[in-house]
């Protein structure tokens, strides 16, 4: 009987210790290895999170900054969600202590300052990084580019940068993510593909560029997309402008439609007369670009030939007139020569008189 009572007390103590190990305003489940601190108006990451935790959800709170001191002793955490917390600053080595971290969700935050090596994880275990709706402004993308280069993310397989209002991608921003397989860039404002933004992504399997501001993809961008031979592409819901110069892109779409998942749904947005026209058919339509260009060149060449003929004819007439009036012209030239000679002799005579005082006096006496 005493032995049974001791066992009951021991179980109670164990249960009490398990219950006590759960941080205030959080819910813990040792059986599921999960801790949830959801919408509890937390201002910082709670302390006392159990060491058995593998799935940690701290979402919908008022946390503004996180650093490496927030996650000490949590070697078993594999999935960490910090979404919707108004986080504005990530310190370097913030997640370095999470040796088993595989999935990190920072979506719906306000990241304005991202320090170098902010995403470094020991053992390079991180495979999924969600930064959807996470960047505060356009300048923070430069911090992100630096952090992606400095952090050890060679094993990262999925990166979500959707819904961030990105206008451009810094050069070689993903060059150190050599193991990346899926890149989501949908719902941004990207206007071009250039600057070798996708260099180093030889293993990429999916690239989502839907709902951006792409009017066309120039040859430089097409070369970048061709440098991703294994990637399936999504390009829908972009405002493609089907005017002169779009043909190379349209022909590329036809040639590459096997790897473009939404090729059949790509349509022209501008001009009005081409709206909703399939991009796959634009390459075979007559936009009038090359034809009108050839016609313009021919018209220009014809104009030059006609102008040359007219000028040549005018020149011949001028020479003919000169020939017919050659005697009169010759007489006029002789008369002009004699007149110039007389004027010159008069000036010469006057110069001799002015330069010799004696002649000057003789001339004066003679005048008297």
UniProtKB/TrEMBL annotation:
A Pfam entry, by short name: LRR_8
Signal sequence extent: 1-20
Gene Ontology cellular-component annotations: plasma membrane
Protein's recorded name: Trophoblast glycoprotein a
InterPro entries, sorted: Cys-rich_flank_reg_C (IPR000483), Leu-rich_rpt (IPR001611), Leu-rich_rpt_typical-subtyp (IPR003591), LRR_dom_sf (IPR032675), LRRNT (IPR000372), Wnt_signaling_inhibitor (IPR052286)
Keyword Transferase: no
UniProt keyword Repeat present: yes
Gene Ontology process terms (BP): anterior/posterior pattern specification; convergent extension involved in axis elongation; dorsal/ventral axis specification; negative regulation of canonical Wnt signaling pathway; positive regulation of non-canonical Wnt signaling pathway
Protein's gene: tpbg1b
Keywords associated with the record: Leucine-rich repeat, Membrane, Repeat, Signal, Transmembrane, Transmembrane helix
Domain LRRNT: 21-55
Boundaries of every LRRCT domain copy: 238-290
Transmembrane annotation, as ranges: 304-324
């Amino acid at each position: 009987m005493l032995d049974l009572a001791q066992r009951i007390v021991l179980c109670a103590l164990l249960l009490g210790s398990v219950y006590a190990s759960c941080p205030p305003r959080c819910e813990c489940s040792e059986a599921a290895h999960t801790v949830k601190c959801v919408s509890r108006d937390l201002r910082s990451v709670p302390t006392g999170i159990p060491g058995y935790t593998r799935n940690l959800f701290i979402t919908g709170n008022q946390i503004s900054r996180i650093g490496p001191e927030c996650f000490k002793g949590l070697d078993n955490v594999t999935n960490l969600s910090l979404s919707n917390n108004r986080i504005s600053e990530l310190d370097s080595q913030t997640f370095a202590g999470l040796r088993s971290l595989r999935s990190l969700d920072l979506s719906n935050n306000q990241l304005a300052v991202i320090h170098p090596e902010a995403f470094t994880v020991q053992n390079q275990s991180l495979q999924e990084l969600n930064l959807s709706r996470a960047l505060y402004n356009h300048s923070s993308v430069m911090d992100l580019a630096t952090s992606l280069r400095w952090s050890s993310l060679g094993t990262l397989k999925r990166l979500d940068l959707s819904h961030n209002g990105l206008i451009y991608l810094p050069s070689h921003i993903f060059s150190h993510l050599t193991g990346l397989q899926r890149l989501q860039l949908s719902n941004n404002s990207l206007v071009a593909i250039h600057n070798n933004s996708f260099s180093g992504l030889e293993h990429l399997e999916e690239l989502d560029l839907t709902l951006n501001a792409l009017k066309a993809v120039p040859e430089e961008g097409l070369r970048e997309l061709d440098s991703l031979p294994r990637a399936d592409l999504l390009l829908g819901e972009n405002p493609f402008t089907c005017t002169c110069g779009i043909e190379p892109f349209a022909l590329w779409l036809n040639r590459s439609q096997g790897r473009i998942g939404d090729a059949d749904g790509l349509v022209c947005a501008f001009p009005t007369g081409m709206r909703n026209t399939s991009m796959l058919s634009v390459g075979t339509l007559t936009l009038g670009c090359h034809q009108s260009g050839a016609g313009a060149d021919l018209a220009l060449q014809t104009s030059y030939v006609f102008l040359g003929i007219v000028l040549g004819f005018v020149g011949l007439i001028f020479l003919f007139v000169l020939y017919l009036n050659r005697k009169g012209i010759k007489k006029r030239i002789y008369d002009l020569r004699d007149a110039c000679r007389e004027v010159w002799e008069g000036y010469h005579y006057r110069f001799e008189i002015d330069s010799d005082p004696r002649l000057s006096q003789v001339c004066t006496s003679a005048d008297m």
